[in-house]
Amino acid sequence: MDPKATDLPPQEFRALRDLIIETREKLPKRLAQVAAYAIEFPDEMTFGTVASIAEQAAVQPSTLVRFAQALGYRGFSELQAVFQERLRDRPNNYDERLRSLDARSANLPTSAALIDGFSRVALRSVERLRERIDPDTLDRAAQVLADAETIYLIAQRRSFPITAYMAYAFGKLGIKTVLVGSSVGIDRETLTFATPRDAAFAVSFTPYASATVDYTQQVMRLGTPVVVVTDSPFSPLVSDSAIWFEVVETDFEGFRSMAATMTLAMALTVAVGEFRRAGKKRNLHSE
Fold first, then answer.
1. Coil, helix or strand for 68?
2. How many CB atoms are closer than 10 A to CB 114?
3. What percent of the chain has pLDDT over 90?
4. Closest to 278 (Cα-Cα) out of 133, 88, 146
5. Are strands 199-203 and 243-246 parallel, antiparallel or unpaired?
6. How would you classify residue 136: left for phi > 0, otherwise alpha for psi between -120 and 50, otherwise beta?
7. What does pLDDT average to over the chain?
8. Cα(29)–Cα(22) distance, integer angstroms
């Protein structure tokens, strides 16, 4: 569990994040609880006190110290310094922008304030996605879906509009899909037709829709390649066999934006179409 004695603990946030993800399954229960909190709420880890972070993570303050030491740091302050380090790489301070906009919209009518608020969190969510997305992972996901005979689109509740849009767009692109979420209640039976020649796209966020988790695990057991969009490396949708994207949406007055998720879905859908078109061109030239 501990880093090798000859190794220094990570001094850069991305490396620290990778270490937490890599060791999460080896950590004791309470330390794993802190790990999940740290990945999901890095800003709170950056700015919070030991007491406030421990309260939010539902652990004892001493657990934070043990978590830091388990990763090779002498104490929590050393670990927190790495979280703070990531701020130096941010091109813009969006928290400052939001605070400024809050002040300017304080006297707006309710409807105007709502438009202002939802617009701001949508912009923040999309910008965060743009900063964090890995183009190579996006290409790999697009290739997996482009190679599939049929793409099964899996989502429930508030995530369902994402797969509904993708079903529409894929249909326009001439790509065969199955939208999971039928009114007749035979989704589980429908997914039994998935094979390793197909692919699945699944999306769910905290609190994870149990049906989405069950259906995703079902197609994984069938050997079907899966692309996942979720909000944490500790999501039940994440597995070693799936290509996955972490999308953290900002909320306004308790209503979470879906702007970043829709942006990713649109980019991925069009990329699949482009990969299909490029593949057809290569096949024509090879004949």
1. helix
2. 15
3. 46
4. 146
5. unpaired
6. alpha
7. 85
8. 15
Q: Are 188 and 200 in contact (CB under 8 A)?
A: no
Provide the token pair at 105: 């919209």
Task: Compute CA distances 241 → 26, 135, 251, whole Å.
Answer: 19, 19, 30
In this model, does residue 54 exceed pLDDT 70?
yes
How many residues belong to the chain? 287
Burial pattern 171-183, b for ≥16 Cβ within 10 A else e, equals eeeebebbbbbee
Backbone angles phi, psi at 248, to 5 degrees: -110, 110
Q: What's the CA gap between 59 and 30, in Å, rounded?
A: 7
Q: DSSP letters of 109-125?
A: -HHHHHHHHHHHHHHHH
Q: Residue 203: in which H helix or E strand, if any?
A: strand 199-203
The verdict on whether omega for the bond into residue 9 sits within 30 degrees of 0, i.e. cis, is no
Q: State how far the alpha carbon of 272 is from the alpha carbons of 75, 134, 153, 209, 277, in Å.
A: 46, 16, 14, 26, 9
Alpha helices in the chain (DSSP H): 13-23, 29-40, 42-47, 50-57, 61-70, 76-85, 94-104, 110-132, 135-146, 160-172, 187-191, 210-221, 259-286
CA–CA gap between residue 177 and residue 155 (Å, rounded):
14
Read off the pTM: 0.67
Q: Give the single-character DSSP code of 149.
A: S
Spatial separation of the C-alpha atoms in residues 228 and 154, rounded to whole Å: 9
State CA 139 to chain mean position distance.
16
224-244 residues labelled b (16+ CB within 10 A) or e (exposed): bbbbbbbbbbbbebbeeebbb
